[in-house]
Design goal:
By secondary structure, the protein is α+β, with helices and mostly antiparallel strands. The chain has three helices and seven strands. The chain has a seven-stranded antiparallel sheet with strand order 2-1-3-4-5-6-7. β5 and β6 form a beta hairpin. The longest helix is centred in the N-terminal third of the chain and has 17 residues.
């Protein structure tokens, strides 16, 4: 009985993964994603933000521009979800992260600097290290 139970559980787990909404894979198209409202069922809505985007980072920049534009017009949404070629993009307070699914593990791609700009996380640390290693200016 136990031998039959393990494959059945594996099939159910794979079926659950397949039901997760997939991001569109159209080449070069950047989407804004509107997930279903909390408590509602249904698929997320995808709205084209930009076309001819060569990389996912360019799409993240277009989504950040959209977020800032909405905030300047009086909006209050500080977090945006986007999609690019099968990947989800999350624009949040701490930075930009990518994921294969809406509720999956996220990979941190860009971090916010002290003034709110986006930068590669390693570049921020290199700037900090370089500033601390620089010799002090002579007093004069």
């Amino acid at each position: 009985m136990r031998v039959l139970l393990i494959p059945a559980v594996a099939v159910l787990a794979l079926a659950a993964c397949e039901s997760a909404p997939k991001a569109p894979r159209e080449a070069g198209v950047c989407y804004s994603v509107q997930p279903p409202k909390q408590g509602e069922k249904g698929a997320p809505q995808f709205h084209v933000v930009a076309t001819d985007q060569p990389q996912i980072e360019f799409c993240a920049a277009r989504l950040e521009e959209m977020r800032l534009r909405f905030l300047r017009m009086g909006g209050s949404n500080r977090e945006i979800i986007g999609a690019y070629q099968g990947q989800y993009i999350f624009i949040e307070r701490r930075g930009v992260s990518f994921s294969q699914s809406l509720d999956g593990v996220r990979f941190m791609a860009l971090a916010r600097t002290g003034d709110g700009r986006l930068a590669i996380p390693g570049a921020i640390q290199r700037d900090i290290d370089a500033a601390s290693a620089a010799p002090a200016a002579p007093a004069g």
